[in-house]
Amino acid sequence: MAIAIDDTCKGYIANERRPARSIKPVLKLLASILIILVFMFYAGPKLGQSPWLKPLADFIEERDINANMYFYTEVEEFSEANINMENTMAYPPGSKR
Question: pTM of the full predicted structure?
């Protein structure tokens, strides 16, 4: 008795073993998670203490600013900075207007 195999079953017979899955995707996922954890718990805090980021971190903490917000509409300093940025884009220095 012959078994007919069409394209829909892709060559697998009921008792035939399927090919083993690769471990590479799992290793890539674990490596990515490890990199994120290293940045969160080691590199990020170390960068926050660096001399060029420390003043910014102190400014954010002193004014109790939620640094996770995308738009700082309720903080006066950022509102003024936004107005200045919009004016600079509309009227760039050296333009003849």
Answer: 0.43
